[in-house]
Design brief:
six-stranded parallel sheet, globular, glycosyltransferase, 516 residues, alpha/beta, ten-stranded mixed sheet
Length: 516
């Protein structure tokens, strides 16, 4: 594995030289002095993705937007692995600290990135762990890295080191907020070391649990008490996700409906009893995601022209762009889009099965996303089957995605489950009505027949009925316009949804968290 230039530089830097620029893609800027407000509590977000630098889905979006929404109230900073994409992002990285090794977890450096709006990101600089081609979790063919248990245990241990003031950084968090299985060992290492820093653990998708063989215990310095069923043991394996749930002071997930669903066998992924017990004790709650304020059709610089609920002429401009971009014919019928990871969870097989109905009724479909190879291939075949009516782009581009939301009449989102979902809120904000299954955050953010369309069962019949309702609304312009206006003005920004987090933080920081 070849190291990047940044990695080589990192290995040559001595401790007395840490306060220098490690990587710069532009002229060295002046170091910004951050004036710390003592009335603000220090909160460390621990995550495997941050959309400014690296993302594969909604976790990266939330990890970027929520800290920014909370910064008015608290000093929130982010801890992130130094993947190659992060090290080569063009943002200057200043080395500010060092972390000792532990068991099989190697020592590493701590870098700091000051993003343009002032958000501070601490980066784990460990070339042997993170600077690889591929995604945060696997290689270019989506095969998981075999040492992911070490890569993400290193992230969790780093959070505990920050809380113990063992990172060589003067800033010390008073609360840890860890996200999903890659950060699941953050609350665990805190408790194993006897540290009292309060910790929130947020489940973004229960289906991804970070499961490892028990033989990994020695490599990660996991104590024997953690092997109990009420800790991180999961059917003979070790679960990073379950560790986060077990050791955090409070567990949240990303919508109220999903918080209820995961305590049932249909959605609990084998953890429903464990989660039900947490919910009964008041330790599990659902706090809905929001979206950041860049999703304003009046001001978004990604758009070809801006528009508003009172003047939607710009939607026609973007519809024409989408049709050209996806090689679709000129058409007076509705434009449906899919902007999604191509995975079974998203119900894409249902959309493929529905394509005949969409085309027969005069609709068109544009699909953008990447994911499971078999679904990518089946989407390509769908476009070949309906040339000029269905267009597919395997990949992702932010500008194109935003223009798709702006140009579409309807967003298709027939997810089998959806912890929260962000795409439906993006679509609503840009006047595109989502068609979605009544599950998780989709049920909480779409008002059926008012800001979109919901259907009950993950079946073709139930899905088709909702799509045919959408066709009828499209044929009634005044009703379509009324629904668009309601969707575009529905509350969805983080500033409108952060109060539950502020209350939870206040409770934990005041010491009112009981025993997890």
């Amino acid at each position: 594995m070849t190291m990047s230039k940044a990695a080589v530089q990192a290995q040559r830097i001595e401790p007395q030289d840490w306060n220098i620029w490690l990587k710069t893609g532009r002229p060295t800027p002046q170091i910004r002095t951050v004036q710390e407000n003592e009335s603000k509590k220090k909160v460390l977000f621990v995550t495997s993705e941050l959309s400014d630098l690296i993302k594969t889905g909604g976790l990266g979006e939330v990890s970027a937007a929520l800290p920014r929404a909370l910064r008015l109230h608290h000093d929130v900073r982010v801890l992130l692995p130094g993947y190659r994409q992060v090290m080569d992002s063009g943002h200057p990285i200043r080395l500010v600290g060092s972390l000792a090794g532990h068991a099989a977890l190697p020592r590493c450096r701590v870098g700091r990135i000051d993003l343009d709006d002032g958000l501070i990101v601490y980066v784990l600089v460990s070339p042997e762990l993170y600077e690889r081609e591929g995604t945060p979790y696997g290689d270019e063919r989506n095969r998981d890295w075999p040492d992911n248990h070490i890569r993400f245990a290193r992230l969790g241990l780093a959070a505990a080191d920050f809380a113990a003031a063992n990172a060589g950084v003067s800033w010390r968090p008073e609360l840890i907020h860890a996200h999903d299985w890659p950060a699941g060992l953050a609350p665990a290492y805190l408790r194993w070391r006897g540290q009292g820093t309060p910790c929130v653990f947020t489940i973004h998708n229960l289906a991804y649990q970070g499961l490892w063989r028990p033989e990994c215990r020695a490599e990660l310095a996991i104590p024997e008490e953690a092997l109990r069923m009420e800790r991180m043991e999961f059917y003979g394996q070790l679960s990073f996700l379950k560790a986060g749930i077990a050791y955090a002071d409070r567990v949240t997930t990303v919508s109220a409906t999903y918080a209820r669903e995961i305590t049932t066998p249909d959605f609990g992924c084998g953890l429903e009893g464990f989660l039900r017990e947490k919910a009964e004790r008041g330790f599990l709650s659902g706090i809905p995601n929001g979206i950041d304020e860049s999703w304003e059709p009046e001001t978004d610089p990604h758009l070809l022209c801006n528009f508003s609920a009172g003047d939607c002429a710009g939607k026609a401009v973007h519809a024409e762009y989408v049709r050209r971009r996806f090689a679709l014919e000129t058409c007076a019928g509705p434009l449906f889009v899919v902007v999604s990871r191509l995975v079974r969870q998203k119900g894409l097989d249902l959309t493929q099965a529905l394509a005949d109905t969409l085309v027969e009724q005069g609709g068109q479909l544009a699909v953008m996303g990447r994911g499971e190879p078999e679904l990518e291939d089946s989407m390509r075949r769908l476009a070949e089957r309906f040339p000029g009516r269905v267009g597919v782009d395997i990949g992702f581009d932010e500008t194109t995605a935003r223009r798709m939301f702006a140009g579409a009449d309807f967003l298709l989102m027939p997810s089998r489950y959806e912890p929260c979902g962000l795409s439906q809120m993006y679509a609503q904000r840009f006047g595109s009505l989502p068609i979605a299954r009544r599950t998780g955050g989709l049920a909480d953010t779409i008002e059926d027949g008012v800001t979109g369309f919901l259907f009950e069962e993950a079946s073709l019949e139930s899905y088709r009925e909702a799509v045919l309702r959408a066709f009828r609304v499209f044929a009634t312009p005044h009703l379509l316009h009324a629904m668009r206006c309601r969707a575009m003005t529905a509350p969805c920004f983080w500033r409108q949804t952060i109060d539950p987090y502020l209350q939870l933080y206040r409770q934990l920081l005041e010491g009112r968290h009981g025993e997890a």
